[in-house]
Design a protein that fits this description.
With 120 residues, this protein is mainly alpha-helical. The chain contains five helices and two strands; from the N terminus they run αβααβαα. Helix 1 crosses helix 5 (103-118). The longest helix is centred in the N-terminal third of the chain and has 20 residues, at 7-26.
C-alpha cells in the first residue's frame, strides 16, 4: 500500500492526474496544486499533504520523464506568489540529472518539453 493508500486506487489516481495534466498541456496551460488535487477522484488528497505534493507528483513526473515527455509536474504550480512548482520539483530535476544551476530556466525548459509532448 503506497503511503497508506490502496495500490489500485494509487495507480488509478496517477492515470487520472496524467490525463488532467495532459489536457492542460494541450492548451499550453498550467494548474495549481489545489486544483489538481481536487480533480483526482480515485483518492482524496489535500494539496498540502506530503503524500500528494512529494510522493504522488514525484511518481507522475518520473514516469512521464522516463517516457520521454518531460517532467509533467512542471505544469503544477503555486496558485499565488511565484506561480512556479515547489522545491520538490527542483530536487527531482537535479536527481534526474537536469541542469538546475538556473532553476527557473530548468522549470521553463521542462514546461516547454511537456507542452511540446502533448501538443495536438
Amino acid at each position: 500500500m503506497p503511503y497508506g493508500f490502496d495500490n489500485a486506487a494509487w495507480d488509478t489516481a496517477k492515470v487520472e492526474a496524467k490525463a488532467i495534466l495532459a489536457e492542460r498541456a494541450r492548451v499550453r496551460g498550467m494548474m495549481p496544486y489545489s486544483d489538481l488535487a481536487n480533480r483526482i477522484t480515485a483518492l482524496s488528497f489535500d494539496y498540502s499533504d506530503a503524500r500528494f505534493n512529494r510522493w504522488f507528483l514525484r511518481e507522475v513526473s518520473v514516469e512521464e520523464y522516463a517516457a520521454g515527455r518531460g517532467m509533467m509536474t512542471a505544469l503544477v504550480v503555486y496558485k499565488e506568489g511565484s506561480m512556479e512548482p515547489g522545491p520538490g520539483f527542483y530536487e527531482l530535476a537535479e536527481e534526474l540529472g537536469l541542469d538546475t544551476n538556473d532553476i527557473e530556466a530548468c522549470w521553463v525548459a521542462q514546461l516547454h518539453e511537456v507542452h511540446r509532448a502533448w501538443a495536438q
